[in-house]
Amino acid sequence: MAQDAKFEAKGRKFDVVGSRPIRPDGIDKVTGRARFGADMTMPGQLYGKVLRSPHPHAMIKSIDVSAAEALPGVKAVITSKDLPDLSGGDQGMKDNLINTLARDRVLYDGHAVAAVAAISNSIALKALKLIKVTYEALPHVTDVDEAMKDGAPLVNGGAITSGMEPAPTKKSNIIARHQFGHGDIAKGFAEADIVVERSFTTEATHQGYIEPHACVASINADGFGDIWVSTQGHYNVRTTCSALLGLDSAKLRVTASEIGGGFGGKTVTNIEPLALALSRKSNRPVKMVMSREEVFRGTGPTASSSIWTKIGAKKDGRITAAHSIIKFQGGPFGGSLVDMGAMAAFACYDLPNVKTEGYDVLCNRPRLAAYRAPSAPMVTFATESVVQEICDRLGLDSASMRIMNAAKEGTKSSYGPTYGPIGIRATLEAAKNHPHYSAPIAPGKHRGRGMACGFWFNFGGNTSVSMGLNGDGTVALSYGNPDIGGTRASLSMMAAEELGIPYEKVRCVIADTATLGHNDITDGSRVTFAAGLATIEAARDAIKKMCARAAKTWGIAEDAVVWEKGHAKPAGSNAGKFEPLSLKQIVAASGNTGGPIAGHYEVFADGAGVSFGTHIADVEVDVETGKVTVLRYTVFQDAGKAIHPAYVEGQYQGGAAQGIGWALNEEYIYGKDGRLQNAGFLDYRIPVCSDLPMIEAVILEIPNPGHPYGVRGVGETPIVPPLGAMANAIAAATGVRMGSIPMSPPRLLKAIEEKA
Amino acid sequence: MRFAAPATVEEAVRLLGAEPGHAKVLAGGSDLIVQMKTGRVEPDLIVDIKRISAMRTITAEAGGFRIGACVPCLAMEENASLKATWPGLVEAARLIGSTQIQGRATLVGNLCNGSPAADGVPALVAANAKVRIVGAKGTREVDVLDVPTGPGKNSLARDEIVESIHLPARSAHSGDCYLRHTPRTEMDIAVVSAGVFVTVDGAGTITHARVSLGAVAPKVLLVEACSKAIVGTKLDAKALGALAAAASAACKPIDDKRGTVEYRTKVAGVLARRAAETAYARAKGAK
Predict the structure, then answer these.
(1) Which of A566, A584, A605 finishes a domain?
(2) Which residues of B touch A (CB under 8 A)?
(3) Domains along chain B with CATH numbers
(4) B189: which chain A residues are within 8 Å (Cβ-Cβ)?
(5) Tens of pLDDT, residues A635-666
(6) What is the pLDDT of residues A468-492, one digit of tens each?
(7) Which residue in A455, A513, A665, A695 has a CA-CA distance of 20 to 30 Å to B189?
(8) A194, part of any domain
(9) pLDDT value of position B287
(10) A346 and A321 inside one domain
(11) Residue B206 pLDDT class (50, 70, 90 cuts)
């Protein structure tokens, strides 16, 4: 993304930024006092439960709720009749409505059909069993390649594919086609000395957050509502719920609870509109907490995929052309973000000829939600597998070949824009020079090392921050994003840095929707970047006001006052001789100089710097069972500027851990009946601590000119390289190149035996 | 739903016999409570047997050990004599769930739950353990092998409970081992597993062997052909190959989300072979 060099962070010396203070939410979290979604209780609250479809695709012929309504203790039962269609032609809102409660048909196993509010959980569960739904089963499809075939059952009626020239005349499950690239790939492949093309598949994965979706909702008789909810974006909850329920936004106040993980899965609403609708019907507060089974069947996941990738290179490793055809299983509504996959597939490299095509395909699976760099891990798995195969076949050094092809400042990216200062080459060079790259693998049988690169766009967006200054020299900082990655700490640090006061003097809180202007969801690795930018600018706004008060006090011009190390000072000897005034002194006296002092900033932050990383993995494969053990793992990534390095490292490690889980064992398993077979953490295997080595995190800092301190988002990129890095390590260990993810023991053992 | 916590085995048996509805016995609860939370079972009566002190001890008996039904897995780890004598069985108990789970979970519960993948059971079968069952009609001793009858099922009458497990006396030159395959290192369930017990003579020749397999049939298997493959050998490569082949041949697994028939069949042989190697080394005195 081309950027105006708006900010110059180079050479700035920081006092607070770059240190590692304790997070303000830490004590509450480790002592159990932090209030998560399920920890709120309202007087007189009811318990809400959801009836879900056992069918992957069926018409709803009738729903009889009379027996459930008659059960003592049941206060409300709702079906789609209680949520009239107010979408008014907004397809996204209509899809949201259909997903919230099925209307004439169910579209996946786990689709919500009805909901009950009762005086206890057990009565609510009993009531669900009394609801009689008559279904007429329809043919279903859950696999992306099957869904694209002629004659496949049309999911949700199918669609006329968008993005096709000419537009098709017949409906299919392909809801959209996307294309990116430049140059002439035919010419590029003709120039190549070696061309490798391979097909890949990846299974759907869930974000796997530990905290299930939970909320408490209340709508009063006067139409005013409150909802307390575990979400990544409470402003979005307000927008969606008020639209679905026909409420004025101002009448619905949304408060974000502490959040036990989201990773993109809590960027959308699920039970929240139901809780509000049940509260409206029962005239009582309603609490809803999903079971883990419901979380798996009814929320998330990310897309499964089928990808074909072809790359050509000269003998020296220089890539001449790259082409990828990417098919994403898009759930019943599409929106698989395959367009972002098509954009991200070759983003690490400087390619003269490149083309990517993406297909978003309807299937009878849960509506998708974003998952940490959504779409990039799958396409990068394909790209990095083929890149490595070319390295291996040409006998080239893995890091050097990638460095030769790495994108740099001024490169026209594979998705269009020209890059500003970026860190792909720096991460590769850091990896190449790191002891992990040069050290021999610890001795043992069937061990191998792999590397892979990854890219993510990052986002900024709508942000509103407010900062109240207190008479005792402390600062109350309010922002509007749930804190997922330690942003209360990071924003407090940036406020302290700019104001020139200690970190401990800043108290940062997450404001509810009635308090600040609109804030976009906590996604796109945006909060430390965008809310950080707004915090710094709000501090500058407050500083300007404080300097004006000092000027007034001293009787000199406002522009003759400067702010240094937490004090207003005369700009020079010409301005007059006055003792500096501290923040505390200025604010304590503010009643006499014009009233309270606060800083504000509202922005659409559009300078999010793109982010790159390189990972190295060492693995051992038990060739008799197919089990893979990760021996060593190192992450190299550009953070722009690491505000709180420990949380940056935590993001690198967490993303790598999730990527390794995806690479090895995590998958949605569907039976022929179209039902999810592993809706629980026993058979949906995220790695546990003992499955992973200590993941080493190496932070590089190539400042982002779009942020005053140079910050780039860091949260998503770390999940992008692991699939490819693990596949490349397994190939090095066994000679078997896996084309399918996860590389679970049965799949890997089969591949090893087929090769032998 | 009612909850009772009797102080004696007799009272527990009486409560179970008198319940007209669905009664469940609670020891550690690591299976039962999960099943209740997910709605798979809705008992009318829960009989908590943890307060029956006679069922909470590990004692020496007839040259072997008697392990009460309420002894948690971690207590087995802490019994040095048991651990030194039956390291494979104790390792099996230490594979169930996680450390926290093992503080509650019991081997008898693992057995009575009837899971074909139960980690504790193949090691008990290899050890030739017996269980003491107490019921309204008296007490009976039964082979461990005969307690589970299929997935989620056991051979106990509705008024019976397992009071304890007895591990027999074993000759000095014996060793056991239990291995399972799981995709994760812990917090997982066996995709396939094998328990092996061997006794050797002074020359290192195997004189006696019991080989059991888990998660490859509706219930745990005791495989005679595996014993035959290694008795009379010094566990050379040929014997190991025959053992693995016999184990694979005995498998009657299913395809499911955890593994295929092909995978389980193959890996059962691998694990039987590896478990035999460890059991054999232990029989010969390796720590």
Answers:
(1) A605
(2) 38-39, 181, 183-189, 191, 256-260, 262-263, 266-267, 270
(3) 174-283 (3.30.390.50)
(4) 682-683
(5) 999 999 999 999 999 999 999 999 999 999 99
(6) 999 999 999 999 999 999 999 999 9
(7) A695
(8) no
(9) 63
(10) yes
(11) very high
Which of B187, B240, B256, B271 would you mutate first to test chain A, the one with the most A CBs within 10 A? Answer: B187
Residues of B in contact with A291 (CB under 8 A): 38
Contact B184 A685 (CB under 8 A): yes
- Is A131 in the same domain as A276? yes
pLDDT at A2 over 90: no
CA angle, residues A293, A307, A167, in degrees to nearest 5: 100
Count how many pairs of residues, chain A against chain B, have C-beta atoms within 8 Å. 51
Considering its fold, how many domains does chain A have in total?
3
**Chain B: closest CA distance from residue A447 (Å):** 18
Domain residues for A575?
Answer: 26-34+460-605
Cβ of B267 within 8 Å of Cβ of A749? The answer is: yes
| pLDDT exceeds 80 at position B276 | yes
Q: Model ipTM?
A: 0.95
pLDDT, residue A435, reads 98
Facing residue for A690 by CB, picked from B185, B189, B267: B185
Q: Tens digit of pLDDT for each residue in A249-270?
A: 999 999 999 999 999 999 999 9
- Same domain for A658 and A731, yes or no, is yes
A444 shares its domain with A592:
no
Same domain, A503 and A437: no
Residue A561, domain CATH: 3.30.365.10
Do A477 and A413 belong to one domain?
Answer: no
Distance in Å, alpha carbon of B57 to nearest chain A alpha carbon: 31
- Chain B residue with the nearest C-alpha to that of A682: B188
Same domain for A284 and A347, yes or no, is no
Contacts with A683 from chain B: Cβ below 8 Å: 189, 257-258
Whether B38 sits inside 8 A of A627 (CB atoms) is no
β partners of residue A406: A349
Q: What is the CATH number of the domain that holds A50?
A: 3.90.1170.50
Average pLDDT over residues A16-35: 96
Provide DSSP, B76-113.
Answer: HHH-HHHHHH-HHHHHHHTTSS-HHHHTT-BHHHHHHT
> Does any domain span residue A193?
no
Q: Please check whether residues A411 and A502 belong to one and the same domain.
A: no
Q: Which residue has the tokens 């998708």?
A: A368
Beta-bridge partner residues of A630? A619
Give the CA distances from residue A680 to residues A37, A206, A297, A666, B3, in Å, rounded to whole numbers and listed in that order: 20, 11, 9, 11, 28
Q: CA A272 to CA A232: how far, in whole Å?
A: 13
